[in-house]
Amino acid sequence: MEGRTAQVIGMSQADALSCRRIFKTPFFRYGDVENAQSPVGVECGVNRMYNRINKATNGSYPSMASNHNSNGSADMAEPNSNTIRKTFKFRISPKSKSVKGRLYHTLNLCRWLYNSALEERKTAYHDHGMRINYCAQANQLSQIKKDCPELAFVHSQVLQDTLKRLDKAYKAFFRRCKQGQTPGHPRFQGKDRFDSFTYPQTSGWKLDGDKLILTNIGVLNIIMHRPLEGRIKTVTIRRVNSKWYVCFSCEIEKPEPLPATGERIGIDVGLNSFLTDSEGNHVENPRWYRAAERRLRTVQRTVSRRKKGGKRRRKAVRELANAYEKISNQRSDFCHKLANDLVENNDLIAVEDLKIKNMVRNRYLAKSISDAGWGQFLNILSAKAEYAGRTVVKVDPKQTSQLCSGCGAVVKKVLSVRVHRCSCGLTLDRDHNAARNILAIALAIIARALAFSEGLGPKPPLRPEKPPALAVGSVTTP
Fold it and tell me: What is the pLDDT of residue 405?
């Protein structure tokens, strides 16, 4: 194992063995790793209305601010903070093969450090009953670099961030154990799984126009397709299918909310149509994966025919990875553009709080649901709405398709019935009827919250327990 590791990162076998001994030797009995706090569930986006509610109730009403994250969108800061984090992702191109080789070398050294630190933690616990934390491992770095001179090639803060990444993995592991979820112990990272390293502060890198200069690595050309904003806090170099990207996490001032439009909308996601709103508008489901299946089958067969370990197989694997990456990029682009259009034109957006992990257990619909990308779209929509000062309200999807949006009666129908017909005379597309119900329930939630803020009603639940009990017909809908 030591000889294989030495071959991967280019250090001598003696140095590799020395580093192994250092990591496996416990210097003292370490304290227990603290469990991370579990995230609090959220229901809707930041809105001035809820600031008013919290002010009226002296902060006793639960926070309803979402904290979603996506590439190129805002990572919202703490409440009452004037700044937020926003990530800018750019494609980078090494100026020469030697610079590209040094990028790979840095990545391999960070991966080796991660795996060695993980091995130390596992060995200390199983053999000595000890738990090792980040501080204990970070204090060993100076000695490790003396015994393994190759690690001096990597910036010290990058090495520290690698150990912090392992510590975060362990905290997430303990949190899942505490919550009764499937634990998923941190695992050793292969060369195709460890694909990024981070400069957590402002040292070790320099930005000069459209060029990024990294210590001991060289100059990287950046394709600056949009300007940077704010002050750069961290820089992450990431590899995706042999392509390299840089992610700048910037601290910026909170933007002003978009001008009010006075519009509100409910949306129902589906498979026949990707989205149907409460006005009856449909957005076609692009089905990116289905459209690319024929191409994927061809490339996959090529991979299967190639000899393992050969150059032609590696080339075929890269081609297959690029095909899947294209599908992912198409889906992401579609979700960003659609979410941006909804946020710009509506003050209130009501959506279903779907349990997609449970829905994909249906073996007949799992591929179509995964291809649609509802979860990705709803996360992007929530992030963009929060950034723009709009409101996204998530409602319980129970019986939204069965209720009549005209009279509130329950009209039972199976999934194959696509038209809603009620005895009150209302005939609508099934998804259109559901979208109207979703908007009505969201408006009821907001009305209860406002009544509570003014002392005119009881404290409302974060989500209605029984949507059919709501007076849907009495709520004004578009």
Answer: 87
